[in-house]
Amino acid sequence: MRVTIGDVAREAGVSKTTVSRVINTRSEVDGATAARVRDVIGRLGYVPSSGAVGLARGSSRTVGMLVPSLTWSWIAEVLQGVVDTVEAAGYGLLLYTCNRGTESVERFAEQVSARAFDGLLVVEPENTLDTIAAMHRGGLPVVLIDDRGRHPAFPSVVTTNHAGAASAARHLQESGRTRPLVVTGPEHFPCVRDRLRGFAEVLPEHHVEPGDFSERSGRVAVERHLAAGTRFDSVFAHNDLSAAGALRALRAAGRSVPEDIAVIGFDDLPMARHTEPPLTTVRQPARLLGETAARLLLGHLGGTPAPDEPVVLPTELVVRRSAP
Amino acid sequence: MRVTIGDVAREAGVSKTTVSRVINTRSEVDGATAARVRDVIGRLGYVPSSGAVGLARGSSRTVGMLVPSLTWSWIAEVLQGVVDTVEAAGYGLLLYTCNRGTESVERFAEQVSARAFDGLLVVEPENTLDTIAAMHRGGLPVVLIDDRGRHPAFPSVVTTNHAGAASAARHLQESGRTRPLVVTGPEHFPCVRDRLRGFAEVLPEHHVEPGDFSERSGRVAVERHLAAGTRFDSVFAHNDLSAAGALRALRAAGRSVPEDIAVIGFDDLPMARHTEPPLTTVRQPARLLGETAARLLLGHLGGTPAPDEPVVLPTELVVRRSAP
DNA sequence: CTGAAAGCGCTTACAG
DNA sequence: CTGAAAGCGCTTACAG
Predict the structure, then answer these.
(1) Domain locations along chain B
(2) Given CB atoms, is B277 within the 8 Å cutoff of chain A?
(3) Best A46, A86, A87 residue to mutate vs chain B (most B CBs within 10 Å)
(4) Architecture category of domain A161-284 in CATH
(5) pLDDT, tens digit (0-9, with 9 covering 90-100), for A149-161
């Protein structure tokens, strides 16, 4: 029922070897023969079985991508960049998420051992870095897409957390704000530490309130400091979601943004345009991060050695009304 | 270098056939033999090559998913549901997006012919339904995840656009609103027509302004009707994004929501909680849609015949401050 | 309960 | 320029 290379060979009156050669455009084939074979391929609608090709060649022309969750729109953007690049190269993309603990990690490890894909792109789910490092040592090409810091053990693509936070601080400073409140993300994330340092180098005097990247944590942080009577004229939140929470708390307390208090976020999610007022934020180039990582991995699979140093893609301050 | 079934057989002193039998837990194997083989498998860390298994069995234990774009968070939610379900069943998920026109469609068709996956889940990219229907006729199991209407040609999972819009209308009616402005999505989408009809059955008198699901179209629609002096006391937008646009236009014009004008959206994107005021909206069960579609497809691959009728998952009105 | 052999659909030395 | 044959790593009748 399925058309195989054998059918094509028989129909064209040549060997399977020859058919294989014209498929893979090896130069050693006679022009007329090749044309005849191509004609038969067209007529029969023959397409090589990806499974058989993979088995014979020892590679699957497929890359895997592991992410913690798809519902963070930051990751969906990265994924879009990855898919575009991988597809354009004629590779397939196998998607995995590790959101059900050890069981999912084990299942994923099986896929790796089963050689389901040739290389792996990863936005690290928490506590999986050791496993992934082991896979990399075991010979699996890996590229890390990293919003959380640097892991020099294998190739990675990162963004400028330090400089991005510094640019936010500079923007506040230039608009005359001198008493910022910083709402952080989880403090064990290297990106959070980078953002703290980058900000502090420009505006060393500020209050810090630990957050967890949730909308709620931004709201609570602001409520707490308003209640405590902290004097602050601006908020720098470590992501857009908590910045949105901060905006809401300020509004509820009757403070106007940006007149009383300016607010800056981090990420530039689509959401950032729709807050009230629209959010000034440090844009992470999520899509580009995905594209770049995919290109790196595909290059590596093609023989180009991956760079030793992390590839750095710059953030960019996007000014909207919450901090003009 | 790679551990194969042959290595295990040799080490355990049995044939490859026997190893294969214990891997696939066929009952005909002697207990002691099986134990010995399992032990060797563990020691050697043997995992069957998915490619070889697929070739021998004629199936890949992989499903494909085709989506128009990942940056709509509605689709990311669906995808999350799909991934969870597919992973739990031990299948892999190959992801494809068709966002570069004919070229991508052709590339995708190749993957189908190459038998890269056993079945396909699809959120239809525009103008691909014919191609997909052809694939289905060609023997590829397909389940459609449909936010745009009904296509009885193959199994599908849909939501209640008609009833959802009706529930929005009823909610407005019950809170005393009698002059709604409806901002639609693209009018050729069946879901848009369903929403229009469902709304009209409850609240036949209303203004209709065509939109395109963008934030801008919601904003423009409201601006236009304010300028024209249309009298309206509420807005029903066909998606959350255009509802957000409506909110912004109303605020800019000094109308207060919900006092002057109530606003209801459709989708319940995460964004809906962060508008000002938070958006009352008709929730589509995106994640559940993905889970259900995946379960249907996996069932079909396992032999359960797919249902003739579309599987219908209900929408739900989520009341927030924009229309209390 | 167990194994030898054929087969899944390709690619790739090797020989001509 | 072309083909016969072995091999990729499994599964599955078939025979015992």
Answers:
(1) 5-57, 62-158+286-314, 161-284
(2) no
(3) A87
(4) 3-Layer(aba) Sandwich (3.40)
(5) 566 678 999 999 9
Question: Quick check: A274 and B244 CB within 8 A?
Answer: yes
What is the full per-residue pLDDT of chain A (324 aa) written as tens digits? 689 999 999 989 999 999 999 998 777 778 788 888 999 999 998 999 999 999 999 889 999 999 988 877 789 999 999 999 999 998 999 999 987 677 778 888 888 989 899 999 999 887 888 888 889 988 899 999 986 656 667 899 999 999 999 999 999 999 999 999 999 998 888 889 999 999 999 999 888 999 998 889 999 999 999 999 999 999 999 999 999 999 999 998 999 999 999 999 999 988 898 888 999 999 999 999 999 999 999 999 988 888 888 899 999 999 999 999
Residues with CB under 7 A from strand C: A 2-6, 16-17, 20-21, 23-24, 46, 48-49, 52-53, 55-57; B 13-18, 21, 27-30, 33-34, 52, 55-56, 58
- Tell me, what's the pLDDT at A303? 84
Output the six-digit token pair for B227: 């300028």
Angstrom distance, B33 CA to D16 C1': 19
Is residue B106 within 8 angstroms of chain A, CB to CB? no
Q: Which of A90, A204, A113, A88 is nearest to B111 (CA)?
A: A90
Task: Please tell me which residue of chain B has the smallest CA distance to A115.
Answer: B49
CB proximity B59–strand D (7 Å threshold): no
Task: Name the DSSP letter for residue A221.
Answer: H
- Residue A132 in 3-state DSSP? helix
Task: Provide the pLDDT for residue B147.
Answer: 65
Assess whether the region B5-57 and the region B62-158+286-314 belong to the same CATH fold: no
**A15 CA vs C3 C1’ separation (Å):** 33
- Regarding the domain delimited by A5-57, which CATH topology (the fold level of the hierarchy) does it fall under? 434 Repressor (Amino-terminal Domain) (1.10.260)
pLDDT < 70 positions in chain B: 1, 100, 147-152
Show Cβ contacts of residue B243 under 8 Å, excluding neighbours closer than 6 positions: B183, B218, B235, B237, B263, B264, B265, B266, B272, B275, B279, B281, B322
Q: Which nucleotide is nearest to A18 (CA to C1')?
A: D2
The mean predicted confidence, pLDDT, of chain A is: 90
Contacts 24+ apart (CB under 8 A), A27-34: none
Residue B50 approaches strand D within 7 Å at CB: no
Dump strand ranges (E) for chain B. Answer: 62-67, 92-97, 119-122, 142-146, 156-159, 180-183, 207-209, 234-237, 262-267, 280-283, 311-313, 316-318
Fold classification of A62-158+286-314 is Rossmann fold (3.40.50)
Place of tokens 């060393």: A204
